[in-house]
Amino acid sequence: MKPKDEKKIKEIFHATLKLVKLNGLAGITMQSIAKQAHIATGTLYIYFENKEKLITELFNECVKKSTSTYFTNYDPEAPFKVGFRTIWENMFQYRINNFEESIFIEQCFHSPFIHQDTKLAAKEMFQPLVKLIERGKKELLIKSLETFCILGFLAGGMSEIIKRAHYFDKKITRPMMEETFLLSWDAMKA
Amino acid sequence: MKPKDEKKIKEIFHATLKLVKLNGLAGITMQSIAKQAHIATGTLYIYFENKEKLITELFNECVKKSTSTYFTNYDPEAPFKVGFRTIWENMFQYRINNFEESIFIEQCFHSPFIHQDTKLAAKEMFQPLVKLIERGKKELLIKSLETFCILGFLAGGMSEIIKRAHYFDKKITRPMMEETFLLSWDAMKA
DNA sequence: TTTTTAACTGAATAATTATTCATTTAATTT
DNA sequence: AAATTAAATGAATAATTATTCAGTTAAAAA
């Protein structure tokens, strides 16, 4: 009895992310994934029931992995700015180092593959950050704007900087990162 | 001789935008576009050579329409903040009122339909804004961070706020808009 | 070593989707 | 009002892509 090769799932995921970064969700086929992962098309179906399941499982994997990273070393008891800085830096680093995943998640949100419940579950994982922002508003440290505005602004801004850095092939240096943190902080600051 | 019905192009574009908003670029088919536009599939090919051409032409149309709106009433001679405010408000309003187009353009950037030269041409249309930001830096009014960071942050933040407003079905009020402008302004301010 | 069994293969099939085309319809010209 | 011609139609065809499956391979058990 030959056992399932768990490394293959990683290779399939890796291949999918690479192709989505290259051509978008609209550009991937099961054949291209198989080829990129150096396996036969049929093998994909041993690991995943179908294309939709493959995408959905990868999506959930990415969301789980990324959000759990976002909150490592985060202490909800620490002062607001300390907590915010921790999460902010975790996000920034993660998205730079895992650019393909970020692109993939973004694409999934506007695709026929990911259903509403999956999206909601993903959103749910950001609760600690939502709570933190609300605490910041209570403590009068940040603007009293609706949380979705503040968070959207910060998250969208960060994503876009990282995207442009990749496309224009710019290196993000430590001082640039500090300046970028200031963009976020000054924006939200009361 | 029956003349081409120019209104049909509008209907086709409109149908495509609606479907892309709903299901993403990965979710549209020529049949679904035709159906949504209340025409026969074959008719699509009278107006557009093929699917890629349809998408590319719609993309160019959207980019042209949106960027030209962004710079209406913009006076490059006016003080920095006045000019910035004009463009910022034009963008904000346009994206709220033409949400589908914004989503479509975003999706196109990561798709197999739009080629590099088309993307570059689109980027080129933002030159006046790039110039303005660079002027703001020279006048020491805003942070001396690379322009792509500042612009990316502002544009990404704005997009994401508007996206979340749509998905969570939030109305963006005038005071909210003012507060949102402050997010951008405070972020970039020196 | 032999047997067993599930992974693996990739060509074959099924399903979907892009594109074409013979036919019909309706503006315009004569 | 008849003739002309290009738009419009939608079923047929072509192309692409998802999925299956009969046969092969290799790990584990006997």
Automatic annotation (TrEMBL), chains A, B:
Pfam families: TetR_HI_0893_C (PF22604), TetR_N (PF00440). Transmembrane segments: none annotated. Residues 6-66 form the HTH tetR-type domain. Keywords: DNA-binding. InterPro entries: DNA-bd_HTH_TetR-type_CS (IPR023772), Homeodomain-like_sf (IPR009057), HTH-type_Tx_Regulator (IPR050624), HTH_TetR (IPR001647), TetR-like_HI_0893_C (IPR054422). Residues 29-48 bind DNA. This is TetR/AcrR family transcriptional regulator.
